[in-house]
């Protein structure tokens, strides 16, 4: 019997972006461009392609530009209309109609778990998706949709997982997993930033999860963890140990937009596929590579 359809999503976008300073001092890292669209637009588009209807973006002070991006700009739209630039006008109008977008401010920077806790009244008693604002995942089948389908099948919280290197796992979360079929796993335990002797597997949570509303009561009971912040991973650990969770080794390429190299990789690879600049950019890269 299928479980509840996922209709709501939360995008935490309140982080300070310290890994990409100095640009993040003036511009939210979620607004960093990948060719001609900000990172957060790719994340919103992924949620919409996954069947999400209502999206809550959690921001903080100095991030009003995120709200502005998804709003109308009457003066610009009038200028495009009078200039006959219908394609650009249609694209801008499409941004404002992507989904029902809501915004709330996380008034204290107290971690990802605290940010998700701010979504309680928005979510209500429904399961919901969380798309991390740092992670852009591009692919034919949206990663969020892959997780939503797993929730609808199993009725358990879902984490998006990928295998990382033995060196990386020490900086990530390590999951205890058991294969169910294909790219689906049962997750029963996890440890954040394990020492080498505590690694459960090389699978780590990366960028996406679908959570039952019970997560809010768990977050309320979760004490501050690493960095004195409320860690979402700590709450998901309690969920995994009591109810179990499903892991989806999602398809698609993940780009870490909180990391300077990740930003450059995303820009380069999206540019190669871009209908306007792709061919010229490929030619330029080949010429550049010959000089390296």
Give an overview of the whole structure.
- The protein starts with 7 loop residues before the first strand and ends with a helix.
- The protein is of the alpha/beta class and 292 residues long.
- The protein has helices at residues 23-26, 39-49, 64-69, 74-82, 86-96, 112-117, 120-123, 143-154, 166-169, 215-221, 232-242, 260-273, 278-289, and strands spanning 8-12, 33-34, 37-38, 54-59, 100-105, 128-131, 135-138, 158-163, 173-181, 184-192, 203-211, 245-249, 253-256.
- The mean pLDDT is 92.
- Helix 12 crosses helix 13 (278-289).
Low-confidence stretches: none
Number of helices: 13
Please state the average pLDDT score: 92
Question: Quick one: overall form?
Answer: globular
Q: Please count the beta strands (DSSP E, at least 2 residues each).
A: 13
Helical content stands at: 25-40%
Largest sheet: 9 strands, mixed
Biggest sheet strand line-up: 5-4-1-6-11-8-12-10-9
Strand content: 15-25%
Structural class, from helix and strand content?
Answer: alpha/beta
Query: Helix and strand string, N-terminal first?
Result: EHEEHEHHHEHHEEHEHEEEHHEEHH
Distance between the termini: 57 Å
> What's the gyration radius in Å?
20 Å
